[in-house]
Amino acid sequence: MIAYLKGKIILRRANFLIVEVGSVGYKVFTKNPFEIKDNIGLYIHHYLRENISSLYGFASATELDTFEKLLCVSGVGPKAALSIIASLSPEEIAEAVDGSNMMAFKAIAGIGAKVAAKIVVELKGKISLSDLDFDSISKDKEAVEALQALGYKQKEILPYLKNIPSNLNETKDIIRYLLKNVGKSK
């Protein structure tokens, strides 16, 4: 079973990537807007059903965990779960479930009232903001710790972590990006 892939993107389409790992190309369905030639690491859900074998890739373990919890809801398959993850962050999904906000899910194409209700009911108590793994959301733990040392709270930083551009690889650049964006709300 494949759990993580690290390699170079050689092809990108609207809903999938081909990731080259050791001269082998893997087709990975994803919602993340990676660029060709990017070297990436993806947390993988290997979906196996009868005659279907698909890989779904996520930038963080938190996204993967949320995706897998969504798959446990009756009526939610991998395409619907990926659509939800593409529209709402793990934090927003947890908030919608905690607040019984079915409208957050109904606003997503392909998710009707019945499925939205099932998501809220079946995930109640199984997903919440306090369950999210903060460390795995962060692209750079040192940058987050630096902001916390400056007095920023975890809940202030969380919403900005998913938007860190993939071309920011150095800690100093990530800190600068977070200060510029999180600082707007301070």
From TrEMBL:
The keyword DNA damage applies. One of its GO terms (biological process) is DNA repair. It holds the Pfam family RuvA_C. SUPFAM superfamilies: DNA helicase RuvA subunit, C-terminal domain (SSF46929), Nucleic acid-binding proteins (SSF50249), RuvA domain 2-like (SSF47781). This is Holliday junction branch migration complex subunit RuvA. Belongs to the RuvA family. Residues 141-186 are annotated as: Domain III. GO terms for molecular function: ATP binding; four-way junction DNA binding; four-way junction helicase activity. The RuvA-RuvB-RuvC complex processes Holliday junction (HJ) DNA during genetic recombination and DNA repair, while the RuvA-RuvB complex plays an important role in the rescue of blocked DNA replication forks via replication fork reversal (RFR). RuvA specifically binds to HJ cruciform DNA, conferring on it an open structure. The RuvB hexamer acts as an ATP-dependent pump, pulling dsDNA into and through the RuvAB complex. HJ branch migration allows RuvC to scan DNA until it finds its consensus sequence, where it cleaves and resolves the cruciform DNA. It comes from Candidatus Berkelbacteria bacterium CG10_big_fil_rev_8_21_14_0_10_41_12. Residues 142-176 form the Holliday junction DNA helicase RuvA C-terminal domain. It comes from the Bacteria. It is found in: Cytoplasm. InterPro entries: DNA_helicase_Holl-junc_RuvA_I (IPR013849), NA-bd_OB-fold (IPR012340), RuvA (IPR000085), RuvA_2-like (IPR010994), RuvA_C (IPR011114), RuvA_C_sf (IPR036267). Keywords: Cytoplasm, DNA damage, DNA recombination, DNA repair, DNA-binding. Homotetramer. Forms an RuvA(8)-RuvB(12)-Holliday junction (HJ) complex. HJ DNA is sandwiched between 2 RuvA tetramers; dsDNA enters through RuvA and exits via RuvB. An RuvB hexamer assembles on each DNA strand where it exits the tetramer. Each RuvB hexamer is contacted by two RuvA subunits (via domain III) on 2 adjacent RuvB subunits; this complex drives branch migration. In the full resolvosome a probable DNA-RuvA(4)-RuvB(12)-RuvC(2) complex forms which resolves the HJ. Residues 60-137 are annotated as: Domain II. Residues 1-57 form the DNA helicase Holliday junction RuvA type domain. Has three domains with a flexible linker between the domains II and III and assumes an 'L' shape. Domain III is highly mobile and contacts RuvB. GO terms for cellular component: cytoplasm; Holliday junction helicase complex; Holliday junction resolvase complex.
